[in-house]
Structures are given as structure tokens and as C-alpha cells.
Amino acid sequence: METRLIPFNDAAIAEAARLILGGQPVAVATETVYGLAADAMNPEAVARIYEAKGRPSFNPLIVHVPDQEAAERIGEFSAEARPLAEEHWPGPLTLVVPLRSETSIASLVTAGLPNIALRVPAHPAMQALLRAAGRPLAAPSANASGSISPTRAEHVLKSLGGRIPLVIDAGPTERGLESTIVAAAGAPLRLLRPGPIQVDAEAAPTATIEAPGQLASHYAPSKPLRLDALAAEAGEFLIGFGEIAGDLIFRSSGDHREAAARLFDLLHHADASTKPAIAVAAVPDTGLGRAINDRLRRAAHRR
Ligand code: TXA
Ligand code: MG
Questions:
Q1: How far is the CA of 253 from the centre of ligand 2 (A)?
Q2: What are the two backbone dihedrals, phi and then psi, of residue 219, each rounded to the nearest 5 degrees?
Q3: What pTM value is reported for the model?
Q4: pLDDT tens for residues 102-159?
Q5: Which of 21, 134, 181, 248 could form a disulfide with 193 if both were Cys (CB 3.0 to 4.6 A apart)?
Q6: d(CA 115, CA 302)
């Protein structure tokens, strides 16, 4: 794939919005770092973010919206959360709040969690893209997994060149540091990631971030889960793959994008079934399969 680098202007935003509505991820400047944005309501588009980053696990992603009104349609804002949003949005603050049940945010975005990270960015390029696409945009930093966050379009090209269709170049980012993340899903407020904005919240060192999969609150089914199943044993709800049929199956597109897109939905279904246990067929450990297997291993490891 050829990666185009286009300076931020109306034509660039129109092209980026076209790609995003077609299910592609696009790199765009924000005031913190460049983000790799995709339609948060399209599970395969979200899977493409992970694919492009080569992330070996599914961390929940921040969803970007144009204003607080849009944020309140997706998340529930408490009496503690709303004043923070009013004071700091648009800007480099991310709030983790309970996800409303009636939204159509892809479950891969929240990695199956009941909470969602929301941010109203200030940068005109990301703002323009949000308004042109008319969709909430999931966007992690636009770098390959394990490398540092990009503060210039050239950093994005070096890291993701050939893996994404477009980078919107708006020069170096102003803040150069990822947003402050505050959990506001029940009192007290907890600081999940320090960042450009100082907030009076309890530090929550166990819930941090950059170590993939280390998040304390990762979704886990309530039932025992058996991996590499060839067939269902007594009492098991089987999630099949490829040749192995089950109660539900991962469709086996060669790139595992569909399997990734459906992973958390399937686990929720399995968890909600009347069967007391879950079994999952083996998913090849290639490409997105690595992230799928990382999550399945964590789900199998009971706490
Ligand atoms: O400044 C930023 O925040 C940039 C720009 C692009 O907006 N984005 C960014 O995303 O830094 P990322 O993926 O590198 O970091 C997102 C972190 C995740 O690692 C995760 O810990 C936390 O946000 N997060 C996202 N959703 C969450 C949730 N539902 N619950 C708890 N933490 C969440
Ligand atoms: Mg990052």
C-alpha cells in the first residue's frame, strides 16, 4: 500500500473522511500526538487500526468526538465528570466513563469493557475530520506497536508507511505528550495516565497504560474458558474457527480481521449463554491472530 502524505486543508479532510467512511484508518494530527483514526462504529475498521499498528494485544482505544454533546450521547457523565469536561474540552483530557448501552460503538473499541474513554480534541485537523466524517473516531497514537508516539507526520510515515493509506500533515504537534486520562466512572476520580492537564485525582498506578494488556480492568468472562478446543465437551459453549464448528464461529478471513472485530461480542455471547463453561478453537498466531490469542489467554486465566 502506498501511504500518501497530504498537508492539512479542506481537500485533505474530504479525502480522509471518504477513506474513514470506507472503513480505512487515517493518521491525523491532534494537539497531543498524531492519532490513527478509524470509524468507532465499524468493527472491521477498528480491527484495521490494530493490524496497522501490529499491536500484539487489544488495548481499549480512546474515542474522539467533536463536542461534549456528542460525548454525552456515548458515555454517562457523573457530577464529578461533567465539570472536568466543561473546563478542559476541547483539549488534551480523556475521561473514562460508563458506556451507554444504546450506542453502536464497536466492542473492540472498549475491549469489551463497560467503560469508554472519550476525548474532545482541540486541534483543527482532528476537529475538521470528526465533523466531515460525522462519526466518533477511535484513535490510538499513530505509531507501530512498541515505538514512541509520533509528534510529526514524518514520524508516522517512518513507523506506519506502507501500512495506512493517508497521513494528514499539520506540522509538529503542540503538546507532544499523550492526553491526561482520568477515570470518572464512580467516585473518586482516578488518574490513569498523567499528561498535559493537571487534574486533582487519585493516582491509580495499577491501571496504567503503556504495558499492553496490563490494564487492571480488562474484560474477563465469568466462566472458565478452555483454549485450543477441537470440540465442545459437556457443558461448554464452543466458539469455533475454520474447520471447527461451534455454537458461534469466528469467520476465518485470511487476515483475521473479522475474527478480531467479533472477538468481544462472541465472548459476551458465550458468557451470557446458559452453558457453565466456554471453549474456543485455536486461532492461528499470525497477524491479528496474535492479539486475539493474547486476549483469549488472558480470558482463560481466571482471577
Ligand atoms: O493524546 C492522546 O490520548 C492520543 C491522541 C491520538 O488522542 N491517543 C492515545 O491513545 O494516546 P493510546 O491508544 O496510545 O492510549 C489509550 C489508552 C489505553 O492504553 C488505555 O489504557 C486507555 O487509554 N483507555 C482507553 N479506553 C479505556 C477504557 N475503556 N478504560 C480504561 N482505560 C482506557
Ligand atoms: Mg500509544
A1: 27
A2: -60, 130
A3: 0.89
A4: 999 999 999 999 999 999 999 999 999 999 999 999 999 999 988 888 999 999 999 9
A5: 181
A6: 21
